[in-house]
Specification:
Strand content: under 5%
Distance between the termini: 96 Å
Shape: elongated
Number of strands: 0
Largest sheet: none
Radius of gyration: 39 Å
Structural class: mainly alpha
Helix content: 55-70%
Order of helices and strands: HHHH
Length: 154
């Protein structure tokens, strides 16, 4: 499509914001403006008010909805879309909350299991160094003083 050269006057702040957005998107400012205009034209709330349309004349004014009706319809569509998005987010929050509760229960169970294993390990006598194997239950571990005396004697 052929391009037309136009000049518009905009505020400096708007121009710098346009440049930043174009750089972030990796396109020229012209391309960004074209995209924005196309997107604006495709939105349902971008329809002109009834009083701005060429078909609005005093003769057919009684047949047309009031000027704010289109805006009210667009607002109700936007509110409905936002309410639907909110319902989706509420479901996501409920799912995440349930997953969090499940994870917390799993952690508590793992903690209790670890504590039980640690207590069982502390309660078991130390295995003898001679490798007696199955006879460890009958042999009592030496006391601290006995182990210290054996260590000094070598």
């Amino acid at each position: 499509m052929p391009k037309v050269k136009k000049t518009f006057r905009i505020e400096e702040e708007t121009a710098s914001h346009l440049g930043e957005l174009a750089a972030r998107e990796g396109v020229t400012a012209t391309e960004l403006l074209e995209r924005a205009i196309r997107a604006y034209g495709s939105e349902p709330y971008a329809e002109p008010y009834a009083c701005h349309t060429p078909s609005h004349t005093p003769e057919n004014a009684a047949d047309e909805p009031p000027a704010g009706a289109v805006a009210d319809d667009a607002a109700s569509v936007a509110v409905a879309a936002l309410a639907e998005q909110l319902a989706v987010k509420d479901r996501q929050i409920a799912d995440l909350s349930a997953a969090l509760v499940s994870a917390q229960k799993s952690i508590e169970q793992a903690h209790a299991l670890h504590a039980a294993d640690k207590q069982a390990a502390l309660a078991e006598p130390a295995a003898p160094a001679d490798g007696a194997g199955g006879q460890t239950a009958a042999v009592q571990a030496p006391s601290r003083w006995r182990r210290l005396r054996d260590a000094w004697r070598g």
